[in-house]
């Protein structure tokens, strides 16, 4: 029964996933896969690729299985299918209707630490936008009428340099006696290298690729050069285009020399600038051509890889050599079988590359030896040609010593760590339970027991007909609402709905265009310091004093607020950051920063607290512990105004919720009343391998049945009845129930706002966090 | 009795906003290793370069070359640090919403600026001490006149003037790149026109006259006179007065263009 259900599935790959052409990595055929949303790249084999490319939502797994069997001569079993689907769904590759969350460290890879001497500096804030502008500005050069002559001219430069080589070499030689001029030539060539990188980016952009970053890279304080990161070249559908992207840099280097050629040719023989120009032409051409050598990390290596369709050719060639050597020795039977996996073409490629590298290395060594003999004075004697060899030997010896030392240090550190008693290891990444947590576990405390507590009389905030516009945009449009003292008030709305403006008007940072605002009975505008003392605001961007530790920051804020150190200490412990007090604010994780921002808002014990998405970057556990902090604050009689995107949170915490869209309050009520007013159906989720859609449709009371991301979703207004019926078909443990949530109400209300606002509402992806009640 | 002690304990426990801010500013400055390096090492590098280039030469003004180069490079270094530091900090504080945070507290803006000024003065004085100590080495051969304490008010006024300029730059610029660009556009031509790297007496007459519209010229002139021991009360007052006037002018401009937030 379960088998039938699984093979009837028709999953689809998420739109936009990039699937690259077949490449070889060593003996294996692989395809590159990239998720443009998360930035995650992965390699898959030919068989996985076969399946993935057929997941279009129209074919069932049974169809694909038949095709697979016809192609590979083997059938896929249930377990294999399940494994495959699980892999795809954990990698977020299936079109499941759920928004994709960026994997931390996926899109923005862990950059190596940037120091004084090594590292990178980003130069352009928005590199793609800059490339777009350059792309438009260089549109003229992409016409064949311009491009062909340009390429011909670039090709002519090395020819001309070869013809005039004698004279140019002579002038370059003279250049070495003029260090200042040589430095100037170096600067010009450095600019040429910068253009080289931009050329890569421009050609890539012309083929529709994205340029990730433009910046300066420093290497050991010796070299600083511009780089331009081009992404996804391997996903271009034609190898010619891949090659064009890689070769663009060298072409640009040659084109850069073009204007200098006529000047050099026209200058009289006595001109002082001749060595500079001659040197520039010769060195510039040499630079361009050397870059085309097929050695990593040069452009020529990339071109070779694209032409041959190989990945990591250098590494794989080394592996191939080891395998081939092992096979030749004949001692190892495994090596021979491994060698057999390489087809003749790949043997040729890897063997040829290894040979080429060896020849190139010998040539470089010989060249360097000759150069040493030619340039170093006589008194160094006859051993000058062996100087490079000696240098390499010394470098290798140093490297071996360094590696040994590092290994010794690592062993010593490991021994030291082993000696430490385990009790000393304090969990630091785990969010600690807040100090003020009361005895009841947070999960069991419902807000019901809070609403029954006596609430202080009076109002905290009164807005009456408040409007605010920025130019043509109505940030707030006739907003009227009242927040009672001691109330936990939620403000929901898509980005740009006017939430921030609302908060800024209430704290007195902005003046309303019309309408009246009173906070604790007084007007917040103009800046009212007496009132501000009673207000705590958590900012969206987490404003911290740079280069201070968490504790120093809070201490400073406390002093600014006129509060004492004990208040700072309390706030730090309240949010559970006491174990991080010595960490610099810049080193805190997203969740820790959120908690520090909360502590910053609470440090002067305000009566009215504005919280802006305080749990946005927290893991579920930390969220729960923060909830209990917030409930305690409310229990102390503080008024809390809470903006959030997590609707389950608003539902769990808030007494009342205002939903704002397009600057208007579109709904204002308790979460429960809002949900009830929607009368939305409940959703029952059953794993798709347990039940078929047809079976589910047959259940009495099921109103709508759909397949979503490997699960059959049954919508019903008679959840109990349907559950009982389902229980006869499948194990009850497998069924998930999702009742109508605030999210449903929210989505319906924000979608039904006026046209101008609907645009904003629709554009925002609301995290789909259903409230799961039992499994 | 009990209330008094409680009160006393309470007031003792509340550190002043001014002291805490000064400490925060100081820590933030010291922990920025790159800036510390440039603040202290750059003037020394310039001293070495110009000292090597012109060692042993003497100029029309009658003083050895080092007596022109040392005060010039020092005034440039002090001015540079006093301009860049606050400009970057102001830009960052506005961009990261720290200014908004301060806006919400009862602490007035002058307290914030005051703490910034104290840190800038301390940095400037430390620069001066280190720099002078190196210049006094026999290799450079600077001779310090006994009236050197007169340099202190000059440095304080100079830091104030460049701090005010830094506030203007920090209010204009919204990104670190813009701060660096604007500040360099201001400082580099000013250094050359004020004769920081070579004796101002070598400049063409009209440039020498025109350079009195630049604050660096006053600081440079004052320091040169003090170190050479030829400062009179009148000339010193003139230099300090000029720097104070620049402080007022740039302070007013900064107050005019000051923004609490990038979002308006």
Written account of the structure:
The complex is a heterodimer of chains A (775) and B (264). Chain A is an alpha+beta fold and 775 residues long. Chain A has five domains: 2-90, no CATH class; 119-297, no CATH class; 312-404, no CATH class; 456-675, P-loop containing nucleotide triphosphate hydrolases (Rossmann fold); 681-739, 2-Layer Sandwich (Alpha-Beta Plaits), CATH 3.30.70. Chain A contains 29 helices and 19 strands. In chain A, the strands form five sheets. Chain A has a six-stranded mixed β-sheet, sandwiched between helices. In chain A, strands 17-18-16-19 form a four-stranded antiparallel β-sheet. In chain A, a hairpin with a 3-residue loop joins strand 5 (211-219) and strand 6. The longest helix of chain A has 33 residues, at 387-419. Mean pLDDT of chain A is 79; it is low at 102-112, 421-456 and 753-775. Helix content of chain B is 75%, strand content 0%. In chain B, helix 2 (17-31) packs across helix 6 (109-135) and helix 3 (33-53) runs antiparallel to helix 4. Chain B has eleven helices and no strands. The longest helix of chain B has 30 residues, at 66-95. Chain B has one domain (24-257). By secondary structure, chain B is mainly alpha-helical. Chain B has helices spanning 2-13, 17-31, 33-53, 66-95, 98-104, 109-135, 151-172, 176-193, 205-210, 215-228, 233-257. The interface between A and B is medium-sized, with 34 and 33 residues.
